[in-house]
Structures are given as C-alpha cells and as structure tokens.
Amino acid sequence: MTLFYRWLRAVSLGTRPHPVIGSRFFLQEIDEQRAVVPLAGYCFMTGFLNAVCFSAIFAWCASQTGNTIQLSISIGRLLDKQPDRFFHIADRLALTSLLSFVLGGFVGRVGETVGYSARIWLVCGTLLQALLTVGAAIAIWKSHMPWYAEPGSGPIWTSTLAFLGYGFMSASMGLQGVMAKRLNTQFSTSVVLTSVWCELISEPRLFHLRRAVVERDHRLLTIFCMLLGGFSGRCVLDDVGPSITLGIAAGLRLVISEGEFNGENDDGFRK
Fold first, then answer.
1. Region 92-108: what's the mean pLDDT?
2. Residue 35, SS3?
3. What does pTM read for this prediction?
4. Phi/psi at 173 (5° precision)
5. Gap between the Cα atoms of 216 and 133, Å rounded
6. DSSP symbol at 111
7. What does residue 267 show for φ and ψ, rounded to 5 degrees?
8. Please, what is the end-to-end C-alpha distance for the chain in angstroms?
9. What is the CA radius of gyration of the chain?
10. 197: DSSP letter
C-alpha cells in the first residue's frame, strides 16, 4: 500500500499516521530526475486540455504565443485606413487566456516559500490544478455551449460562463507551467513544444541510438505525451462532451498528485 493511502487511512480512522508522514516528510525535496512520471503526466494534461478548447474555439489554453500575437494584431487594426475598433470574440478569448495564464503562473510563485521541489508544494500545487480544472468543467457544463466548431466557422464559446471555464483551464496551465519549469528538467515548462523541438533538433547526441541519452529521451517523451494527450482528449471529447472530459482531466491530475506524494526524495528513498 502506498504512503498516500496509508496516510489517508490513518486520518480517516482517527489514528496517528506513520511517523515518517509528518512535517519532515512533506518538506522533503523530491529528486527532480526521478519525477519523470508526474512530469510526463503534466505533458499529457497539456495535450488533453488543449484538445477540448481547440475543438470549440480554435485556440490553445496553454500556448500563449498565439494569444499574445493575436492581441498585438488587434491593436494594430486600430491603425488601418478604416480602423476596426470592434473587440472580436477571438480577441476576448485571447485576452482571457493570457491574463488567466499569467495569474495562474503568479500563484505558482507560492512555491518559493517552501521550495519548488518540496513534496508538499508539488502535491498541493497539482491539487490546485485539479480544482481549477473542476471549476472549468462546472463552468462549461452550466454554459450549455456546444463543444465543436465547424471548420471555417468562428469560436462558439461566447457566453460568460464559457469564458470563465476557458480562464480556469488557462490558469491551471499557467500554474502547471511554472511548477514544471522550476524543477529544471528536460521537460521544460510542459506546456509548449516549440522550445522542446528546437532543443531536440540541436541535441549533439540526437542520433546516438545505441545508448540512452537522458536529455534526448526526455524531450522525446515530452513530445509523445503531448501527442497522446491531444489524441486521448479528442477521443474522449467526442464521446462524452467537454464537461465530463474536463472532469476526467481533474481526476487524472489527482492521480498525478498521488504520484508526487509517493515520489522519491534526493536520497533516492521514499522515506
């Protein structure tokens, strides 16, 4: 039985938890190089959530490059010979995502107080990501908006609740990105692939196929997990709709937090 379930059982029975599951246990530094599974889970969640929002609004909740450029273009339209002063739905969605992502990222700075690789922060931060995803699921469910936009059409999430759900999704990605980045691994921020592709292509040992190369292999794993997440998210979305898909995403984040709870510390032991 894992430490997480031993601790949960002790709390539910009103008994004293195992002595190692105390403040010292929660403040232990997780070995970043042994946190491959939770970080791969982060990458999977990036693809999974992006599949939901892109199917409805042709925009990403994780990648803010496009949202930033889109906002700059909307400002540039004011200088046209016939200025377009209308704040389009796509522009509003881009602004919502960018602000929510930044806000979630700033929440991620809370980890400075206990350490970005401390067990308690990794677990609580991932649980907060799950709560934000639950908020997104509820908001999208109550909005009663469709989940699929026909090719050539515009964004179909136009209600206030849909914007709120999109904001929750982006905030969870911002928090995830900061948490992953501060672990300083080959998984980078776990929310974008452009830099990962560049680092992979420029890797000097890219074609050393007869032996393991950690830097190369982890970047390949990052790309694969995002692809798998996007594929899985789209398949689930087609069967059950966006709100249940986001509920499943929240459950997956709970699983990731449990993996971080049982992660090995810097000495290589689950004390």
1. 94
2. coil
3. 0.85
4. -70, -40
5. 31
6. G
7. -90, -5
8. 14
9. 20
10. H
Dihedrals phi, psi of 2, to nearest 5 degrees:
-70, 160
Instruction: Output the six-digit token pair for 233.
Output: 């998210």
Amino acid at 259: G
Q: Which of 175, 147, 124, 136 lies closest to 240, judged by CA?
A: 147
182-222 per-position pLDDT tens digit: 888 877 778 888 888 998 899 888 888 888 888 888 899 99
**43/49 Cα distance (integer angstroms):** 10
85: burial class by Cβ within 10 Å (0-12, 13-18, 19+)?
Answer: exposed
139, containing H or E segment: helix 119-143
Per-residue pLDDT tens for 52-73? Answer: 999 999 888 988 998 999 999 9
Half-sphere exposure for 43 (CA within 13 Å, toward CB)? 26
**Nearest-10 crossing angle of helices 194-201, 214-240:** 150
Rounded Cα distance between 169 and 130, Å, is: 10
Closest CA to 22 of 34, 35, 10, 13: 10
Residues forming beta bridges with residue 118, ordered by sequence position: 29
DSSP secondary structure letter of residue 186:
T
Tokens 């401390």 belong to residue: 118
Give 29's strand partners. Answer: 118
Nearest to 61 by CA among 102, 98, 107: 98
- Side chain identity at residue 223, one-letter code: I
For residue 122, CA distances in Å to 163, 181, 193 come to 28, 12, 22
